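Hey all, quick one. A colleague (J.T.) asked me to put the arginine job into the tracker so the inputs and the structure tokens live in one place instead of scattered across chat threads. No bug as far as I know, just bookkeeping. Sequence used:
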Amino acid sequence: MINNIKTRIKKELELKLKEIFKTDISVVVEEPKKVELGDISIPVFSVVKVVRKPLPQVLETVIDVLKTLKDNEIFEQINSVSGFINITLNKEKFSKLVIEDYNNSISNYGSSKIGENKTVCIDYSSPNIAKPFSVGHLRSTIIGHSIGNILEKCGYKVVRINHLGDFGTQFGKTIYAYLNWGNEALVKKNPVGELVKLYVEFNERAKTDKSIEDEARKIFTELENGNPKYVKLWEIIREESLKEYMKVYKLLNVSFDSYNGEAFYNDKMQAVVDELKTKSLLKKDQGAMIVDLGEKIPPALIQKSDGSTLYITRDLAALFYRKNTYNFDEVLYVVGNEQKLHFDQLKKVVSLMGYDFAEDIHHINFGLVLQDGKKMSTRKGKVVKLEDVLKEASTLSLDYINEKNPGLENKEETAEKIGVSAVIFNDLKNLRTNDFEFNLEDMVAFVGQTGPYLQYTSVRIKSILTSVTEETEELDFSLFNEGHYFEIIKNISQYEDTIIKSKEDYAPSILAKYLLNLASLFNSFYAKEKVMVEDLVERNTKLQVLRMVRNILNDGMDLLGMSVIQKM
Ligand code: ARG
């Protein structure tokens, strides 16, 4: 809202100043560095430079023009301080506009059209089958899902892709181990755990018996060539692994449009290799095929000397497939910091191939999850199951409910939502590129910068709203002259801009911080104000504030991928 006003001022000012000064002038309209200075600020030095007139004259002209704008209605004061023109908005009128705008959109509030007719492919989660779902995959899932939601709110069409790691020589090993000392019943019972065991044991045995490596390689080649027996086994491994990941997805309430993993591109890589050849980008290097990427980036290895392809070869094939299938405007890869080089190489190869859309490839990188300062990981043999971590968060939340409100209906379900959403929020409130410490107790707390704090604030408002009986339609806008009212209104007016900024930076943390701020503004408001006052108009005005805050909190939590609870 406030952004719309700023954009409008900018446009109109530029137009009118051009008429006056007969030259193109670009005007900056921003927010003042300090709240005391007002709500909108326009530095005029840049204008002075272009028109070459004395500062006082330019100030006067700009101020005169501002007074002719339609928005002048909501300007309370226009001041100039050392080369800046500061505008203070009329709190009542501005609040009225915001509330009207809100009431006209309700559930759409905050959405925009910046992504209209644009498609974004977003590649996230993407675990490796027959391997545990790692902490990194959990981060990718949480961040990717939320960015997908934020994009949709901005009007983009979003294609959610789970690029499963379901291809590679390790499947030859796993299949060899399964056929020689595996146990079908055990695999069915605990697929990923059992398959990991088989793989680990294979590597143990291979230390003393090199011949099994060759056997495994043969199996993999046959698998690539479609040997039905191996394909069948591979399918079982894939399906059973996916079933296990689905448990995590179900808890997180996440789904995908495509589960095409690396194997899907098996028959699509030759075309890429051929194109690279035709474009004279492929170079032989000690028997292998590489693409030289210049001084700064090490060469990309496209094909090994035995003809087998690599991770990047499959990613190239996947990228062209996505471009052809979805004609994306952007393609995002939500993958940890450690794969930075891989995505730099991918981008560079595409750009050398002469495709402009190399610019639209974005690696949405993220940091590690730490436990006691060390990388939290799924250790060999002893697997930290993420499903168990999420369940533990739910148990902690259930303890809380049992203490505070033991009679709550469906308390297990509520506890699960609180617990899981606490883990989600804890991840997303951090700048994604940073590492962060995983402390379950902290993140499920109801005070502090946590998911449960947001849930609690929303439920608290709901319980006030449901106890309401009498109402009027009328609002008392004079109340918005008070700071604690106006702060909330201003915040509400920034919801759409916050979402757009989150999209631009691919940073759900911007939205997460905004929600924390809104919740805390509300809680201080509520500490000062009694809602159920006698005066119906005053009461209704407060209820309007409450409704708006709650809807935005809920909408925002939803965008972050948190399940909003109604009662606790
Ligand atoms: N499976 C990969 C891993 O676990 C992540 C894949 C990310 N997506 C991609 N298109 N490379 O490391």
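Adding what we noticed when we looked at it: The two ends are 33 Å apart (CA to CA). The pocket of arginine is lined by residues 123, 126, 128, 163, 165, 315, 318, 333, 335 (CB under 6 Å).
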